[in-house]
Amino acid sequence: MPTALIGFSALTALLLALPLSRLAPPTTKYRVDQTLTQEVDATAAGKGKQSVSFTTQSYLTVSFADSAGGQAMRVVVDSMRGDSATPIPAAVLDSAKGAEFRAFLDRAGKPSPLQPASRTPNAAQVQGLLSDFFPWVRAGIKVGESWADTSANVTADGTDSVTVRRITAYRAAANDTHNSRKAVRVTTDYTSQVAGTQPTPNGPARIEGKGTGKGAYFVSSDGQYLGGNWQLQSALKISGAFAEQPLPVTLTQTTKVTALR
Fold this sequence. Notes:
Elements: E1 27-42, E2 48-67, E3 70-82, H1 90-95, E4 100-106, E5 115-116, H2 121-130, E6 146-157, E7 160-178, E8 181-198, E9 205-220, E10 225-239, E11 247-259
Antiparallel strand pairs: 1-2, 1-11, 2-3, 3-4, 4-5, 6-7, 7-8, 8-9, 9-10, 10-11
């Protein structure tokens, strides 16, 4: 019976469905703090209730370059570490230093899913920790604007494949000050549907369920992402040969992103 759904951590993406102005500055460093808590009621499999909770901390350098049809985004891992409960081995997190990930912002400003520049086992294991840290931002957001977006995000690594479909509502809630910078605070509310499969020591597992979330992030007048925070919670069912009935799973993820410079 699995005790952690490590491949499933991309529960949300903060996307603004509005036209894009150039992001500024072209290079920024970020710190990403995440906590993931999973509770599995394995009573039907004769193993009672199981829980795991861990935190990770990542430092990233993000740069942009003009490209045909939008901007190319490059993310470099400066460092990554987890607490003693993190199921990803410390050696894997240490070896992630210097790893590159790529995405593309189209003319509307929508970022594509973050992908590793080269397919390596270590990159695949840490990709989920980074997939949702950067939202869709633009210059000139005005307080009172609201919009919605529908997206589908697929994380796949061999037989590990999970699709998260989201409907997200956004609102430019207020002018604010964040880290001594004038900014607009954008709030998000969303619902999601989750479906996919994951390998386990006891055979393949089917995962399905629904999630909800709330968050807020900050955008400067010139379109720089200044960081934000959000919490996601999913009520899932996991089924397979290891249990006669689907097992309830509650997954809670909190993320905080801080722009360092």
